[in-house]
Amino acid sequence: MGPSGACWRRGGGGVPGGLRRWLCSAAAAPRVCVVGSGPAGFYTAQHILKHHGGAQVDIYEKLPVPFGLVRFGVAPDHPEVKNVINTFTQTARSGRCSYHGNVSVGRDVTVAELQQAYHAVVLSYGAEDNRVLGIPGENLSGVYSARAFVGWYNGLPENQDLNPDLSCETALILGHGNVALDIARILLSPLQLLRKTDITDGSLAALACSKVKRVWLVGRRGPLQVAFTIKELREMINLPGTKPVLNPADFTSLEDAVRDAPRPRKRLTELMIKTALEKPVGTVSPREWGLKFQRSPQEVLPTADGRRARGVRMALTRLEGSGDSAKAIPTGDMEELECGLVVSSIGYRSLPLDPAVPFDTQRGIIPNSSGRVEGVPGLYCSGWVKRGPTGVIITTMNDSFDTAQSVLEDLQRGVLDVSTSREGFGAMESILRSRGVRPVSFSDWEKIDAAEMARGKAAGKPREKIVDLQEMLRIIGH
């Protein structure tokens, strides 16, 4: 198994029946720590465990509950995307993997302390913030980040008091990605569809009283640069009781431009063109949504009392260049769009975790090469904090396998010295205890999970998420 050889075989030495035993040297068993229990963390752990028969992996998570954006980012009406949780659960239940929730790295323990206790530390804590618009009026009441809005309806504890004001008729979402479409769909979905999902009870109650019946999704560039995918667009077009409003003028002469585009882009654009040109048939829909292109937000306009959002002033843009690299240049013309709810969906952003870890604030990532943190041997990163907040779960899987491979290579080449044994969680446990931190185990999580499933069953839903941290800890007797 190379220099990292976790286990070796020794002959039975005259033992009856030639019994052979596997002896594992504690010194040769690499201890790896993963910070963050979202897809990046779990896929990194899974790959290391699968390809190294002696590695021990501990996963640390600041919340009591695992799975990161699979639990708190995936739309409630997309349960099939959450099936990866079954794979992650198998990993967490493996004899060589331990989950330690309710531990905030950077606050409860430092990265340096983890480095003392483990042969390798992988930072997979994702993007815990959102990019700001940087325009006047951004902090007015009625303006929300997509991250907070999604966290609110998905039960992220820190967003439970968001209480978005849904008393207006028109909402404006800034951004043309899948998250923007998710939010539009949740705002306009018939309640009977949402009631069958794991959307939180509180957000369901708020949506039941919502007056929103029109949602505009606004982007700086054109139809050929939208970042959403055809599946999400199709769902939006087919949403019951809702009609799409696309301006045919936005799509003239696009057939030629898209002819040589890659197939996914071509199919997506053709679906938009078809939708824009189709004449509505049958009943009048009470709700509508539309895409607005080549508009760049300049200011959120306040109501007369200066407190709330009443609209957004936008600069009209023209495109320079083509395809994904096209740039939006302001033309000098302006337009105002009235709305009482503004959601900024222009991307998530990673934050620095610990002063000891290099961080590129410009790009919002930890500088790295194939997941190896620059200038810090034994420190790695995977997922959004490694490459920026883009891509879907499969992208994160491949990216995490790439980082895990770097760890395995460094073990094999002897870059990571496993000749000295490390205590792993044993060392961390006493540090955490001395600081009054009580970690949550995976079996503790399974009790919270069972409670959520039971509450969901009573309400006719797949689960009812517990949104209060203290209540989670009470369930497990912390």
Number of helices: 16
The neighbouring-strand order within the major sheet is 8-16-9-10-12-11
Biggest sheet character: 6 strands, parallel
Report the portion of residues in β strands: 15-25%
Average pLDDT, rounded to a whole number, is 92
Distance N to C terminus: 42 Å
Structural class: alpha/beta
- Report the strand count: 20
- Cα radius of gyration in angstroms: 25 Å
Helix content: 25-40%
- Could you name the ranges where pLDDT drops below 50 across 5 or more consecutive residues? 1-27
| Net shape | globular
What does this entry show, briefly?
The protein is of the alpha/beta class and 478 residues long. The protein has helices spanning 39-51, 68-72, 84-93, 111-117, 146-154, 178-188, 191-194, 201-208, 230-237, 254-258, 263-277, 384-387, 393-412, 425-434, 442-459, 469-475, and strands at residues 7-10, 21-24, 31-35, 56-60, 97-100, 120-123, 129-130, 143-145, 170-174, 214-218, 242-245, 287-292, 295-302, 309-320, 327-338, 341-344, 348-349, 368-369, 372-373, 379-381. The strands form six sheets. It has a six-stranded parallel beta sheet. A five-stranded parallel beta sheet has the order 5-4-3-6-20, with helices on both faces.
